[in-house]
Backbone:
């Protein structure tokens, strides 16, 4: 068996990377709509500690809404935990993605047993690709495990982080471009942002 360096970003197509960047863009903008209006209850001092949770829920909702589109370039599924918690998952041919909020784009989410176990899938990678006798490159039968990381207040960011096997560090990462605040947003992004905000508020009212 020989090893050949490969690029982690080669495991995503341009439409897939744009889809992920749009998720974070829409989730970030919807969060701003909810919290930056002085009349919004979410802008109240007592609600500020809830900001991270609200932002995370918005991102998770946008993953599900985006995945419902026929043009979604990923397979969508949900992971269920004891206690009723449910999180969305996106998959392409090579990578399983979870979403997570972090204050630093280069920080992995807190350790958990399931994350450590899933990270073991990344051991064949470690920035390398196995090359077998027939010269067919393969990453093995299990998909790599990575995170779509979002965060930032003044300067929002989006990054795909690939944990090292064992979850002790980062094997690779991809920074995704987001639109600047002063950049005119495409009409479709604005429409989907408002739709996400309204869907969140509808859920809060029904809950």
Residues:
């Amino acid at each position: 068996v020989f090893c050949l360096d490969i690029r982690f970003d080669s495991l995503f197509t341009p439409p897939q990377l744009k889809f992920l960047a749009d998720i974070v863009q829409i989730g970030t903008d919807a969060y701003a709509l909810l919290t930056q209006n002085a009349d919004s209850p979410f802008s109240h001092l007592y609600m500020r500690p809830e900001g991270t949770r609200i932002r995370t829920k918005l991102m998770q909702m946008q993953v599900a809404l985006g995945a419902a589109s026929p043009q979604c370039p990923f397979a969508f599924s949900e992971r269920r935990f004891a206690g009723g918690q449910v999180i969305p998952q996106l998959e392409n041919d090579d990578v399983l993605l979870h979403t997570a909020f972090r204050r630093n784009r280069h920080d992995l989410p807190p350790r958990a047993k399931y994350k450590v176990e899933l990270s073991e899938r990344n051991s064949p990678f470690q920035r390398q690709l196995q090359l077998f006798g027939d010269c067919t490159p393969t990453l093995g039968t299990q998909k790599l495990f990575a995170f779509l990381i979002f965060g930032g207040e003044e300067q929002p960011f989006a990054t795909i982080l690939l944990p090292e096997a064992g979850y002790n560090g980062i094997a690779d990462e991809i920074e995704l471009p987001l639109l600047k605040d002063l950049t005119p947003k495409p009409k479709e992004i604005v429409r989907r942002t408002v739709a996400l905000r309204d869907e969140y508020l509808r859920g809060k009212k029904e809950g």
Observations:
- The longest helix spans residues 14-35.
